[in-house]
Amino acid sequence: MTWIPPFLLLGAMVGGWEAFARLGGVENYLLPAPSEVAQALVDDRHLLLTDTWVTGREVVLGFALALAVGIAIAIVLHLSPLLRRTIYPIVVASQAVPVIVIAPILVIWFGFGIAPKLIVIALICFFPIVVNTLDGLASVDRAQARMLRTLDASRTDVFRHLEWPSALPYLFSGAKIAVAVAVIGAVFGELVGSDAGLGHAIQIGTAELLTARVFAAVFILSAMAIALFGLVAAVERRAVPWANGGSPESPMSKGDK
């Protein structure tokens, strides 16, 4: 029943929004009522469905790219202290450059296809994956690591049976953050240069004062982010069942079974 209070609060907010939009004397092109947004979802369903497919594909592929690159960077930095001291500050500094500034440059370099969108999404998503995974790899119990070495475990064995399982809960924490903001990267990329997608629909709807359609596109983007977050969380529950216990010994015991 933990879902009841949020839904009650959401219902009250939507009801208040509906009443204000209907009775507050606000023009619908400035603030459409929720019922008008729902009507736009129905009336423009074919357009929005096509745009949702475009943006959804960009988000999934961009997130997958960020996941692969982020995990690879985290492992390399963990295994090489020299590279960590050299590259990690650059990884952190990369987040100081606004993506909205980089996006137009990527369009100039790669054109108006899907490539600039994927790069923008990956740039937004990879940082929490790298940081959380790196912290997870460094969080292992040193006593367990020493015990494995006394049993003649190689560096690869220590990584495979101890460090990587211990890092998985951290990795999924970073992945949940990344997938939730991936839609932002997709919208950034589409606003800069695209002829399809929900970001493009928002841009056109804003220019034509089709505010209800704009709100409908924002609603779909929010639903997409929530759904992807829930999907990653579901995978986490299956992939790291020991994480809920919070026991440092759990990864080892999992591997021993």
Describe this entry's structure for a reader.
By secondary structure, this protein is mainly alpha-helical. It is globular, with a radius of gyration of 22 Å. It is built from 11 helices and no strands. 81% of the residues lie in helices and 0% in strands. Mean pLDDT is 84; it is low at 246-250 and 252-257. It starts with a helix and ends with a helix.
Helices, strands, pairings?
Blueprint lengths: L3 H20 L10 H10 L1 H35 L1 H13 L5 H12 L3 H24 L4 H9 L4 H38 L5 H10 L3 H29 L10 H7 L1
Helix pairs in contact: 2-10, 3-4, 3-6, 3-8, 3-9, 5-6, 5-8, 6-8, 7-8, 8-9, 8-10, 8-11, 9-10
What are its keywords?
0% strand
Give a nutshell description of this structure.
The protein has eleven helices and no strands.
Q: Give the number of helices.
A: 11
What is the subunit arrangement here?
single chain
In this structure, how is the largest beta sheet organized? none
Cα(first) to Cα(last) distance is 35 Å
| Amount of beta strand | under 5%
Whole-angstrom Rg = 22 Å
Structural class, judged by helices and strands?
A: mainly alpha
Q: Give the integer mean of the pLDDT values.
A: 84
Kindly state the number of beta strands.
Answer: 0
Uncertain parts: 246-250, 252-257
| C-alpha geometry | globular
SSE succession: HHHHHHHHHHH
Range of helix content: over 70%
